[in-house]
């Protein structure tokens, strides 16, 4: 769903490298329709299109695909050239290996490596050379390499586990969207674990499709939601966008071929609940509609299943820290 919104934490984190270089990012935010004051509200969120455009504008203004987090710049076009280097490889294993070798030729670049572990393969990123306090770039690299690999073979690589060398951050609940699998923090390395069978798969892309792919990548790879087949994503798909006609928990459990008790337990294990899922989906749909001026706030409230606009105002303020009117004004 394109309406899945992005936490303001990631916007603040993306700007850190540019700000450290003394850049004033206010004009850039205004260009995107994001009022800087919005970032002072920790619960605020932005549309995925705004986030993708932010990353692109940062790359352009800094001429640095590392967004100011590396010891040295990675000049714009480096990622594209790496893609052209790997596009004629016969298998995903060759492509990932050649891509890792390509980046190893640049001094102080984050190290990328692929190892087999029995039936599994692990793609690791060594970020020790980065000045990246929020771990923003290393998480971007994990997402980009996962989604690039999936695109190359024409199917989504199912992740088994993602590991991080740092401790679990306050915004860890957001990671379900980025890394829909088991996540381990304070681990020995920052890595993605997936089945080794993907490595033998042939590349289904060529230079013609690559040219099209590069028009929006890698920024679009970061902003595009990838809930995969996680339980939370399955439930969001079953709920859909019509809030007035949402199935109840029993009906959702039946569609997922499990008992309501089992569904509740699985959600509890993922740190969520059915009500919280519905609230988050309502929140994302509300932000999606508020970003488009064609609907009055009262109409949005009705679409989201609120009997009174005042109930929508209270709920939205609880979700984002702002009223719907203030949020729309900030976005303008």
From TrEMBL:
GO terms for molecular function: DNA-binding transcription factor activity; transcription cis-regulatory region binding. Residues 229-330 form the HTH araC/xylS-type domain. InterPro entries: AraC-type_N (IPR032687), Homeodomain-like_sf (IPR009057), HTH_AraC (IPR018060), Tscrpt_reg_AraC-type_HTH (IPR020449). Transmembrane segments: none annotated. GO terms for cellular component: cytosol. Keywords: DNA-binding, Transcription, Transcription regulation. SUPFAM superfamilies: Homeodomain-like. The keyword Transcription regulation applies. This is Transcriptional regulator, AraC family. It comes from Pseudomonas guineae.
């Amino acid at each position: 769903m394109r309406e899945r919104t992005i936490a303001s934490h990631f916007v603040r984190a993306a700007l850190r490298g540019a700000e450290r270089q003394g850049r004033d990012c206010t004009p850039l935010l205004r260009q995107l329709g994001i009022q800087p004051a919005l970032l002072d509200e920790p619960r605020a969120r932005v549309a995925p299109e705004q986030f993708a455009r932010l990353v692109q504008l940062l790359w352009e203004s800094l001429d640095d695909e590392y967004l100011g987090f590396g010891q040295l710049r990675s000049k714009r076009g480096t990622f594209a050239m790496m893609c052209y280097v790997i596009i004629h490889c016969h298998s995903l294993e060759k492509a990932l290996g050649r891509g890792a070798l390509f980046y190893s030729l640049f001094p102080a670049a984050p190290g990328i490596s692929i190892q087999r572990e029995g039936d599994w393969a692990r793609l690791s990123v060594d970020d020790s050379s980065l000045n990246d306090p929020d771990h923003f770039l290393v998480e971007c690299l994990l997402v980009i390499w996962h989604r690039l690999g999936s695109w190359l073979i024409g199917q989504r690589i199912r992740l088994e586990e993602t590991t991080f060398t740092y401790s679990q951050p306050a915004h860890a609940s957001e990671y379900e969207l980025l890394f829909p699998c088991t996540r381990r923090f304070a681990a020995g390395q920052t890595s993605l674990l997936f089945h080794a069978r993907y490595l033998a798969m042939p590349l289904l892309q060529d230079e013609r499709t690559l040219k099209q792919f590069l028009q929006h990548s890698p920024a679009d790879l970061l902003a595009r939601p990838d809930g995969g087949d996680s339980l939370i994503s399955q439930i969001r798909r079953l709920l859909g966008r019509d809030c007035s006609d949402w199935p109840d928990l029993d009906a959702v459990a039946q569609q997922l071929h499990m008992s309501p008790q089992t569904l509740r337990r699985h959600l509890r294990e993922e740190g969520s609940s059915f009500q919280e899922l519905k609230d988050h989906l309502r929140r994302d749909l509300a932000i999606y509609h508020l970003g488009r001026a064609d609907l009055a706030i009262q109409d949005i409230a009705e679409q989201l299943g609120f009997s009174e606009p005042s109930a929508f105002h209270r709920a939205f303020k609880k979700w984002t820290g702002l009223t719907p009117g203030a949020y729309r004004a900030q976005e303008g």
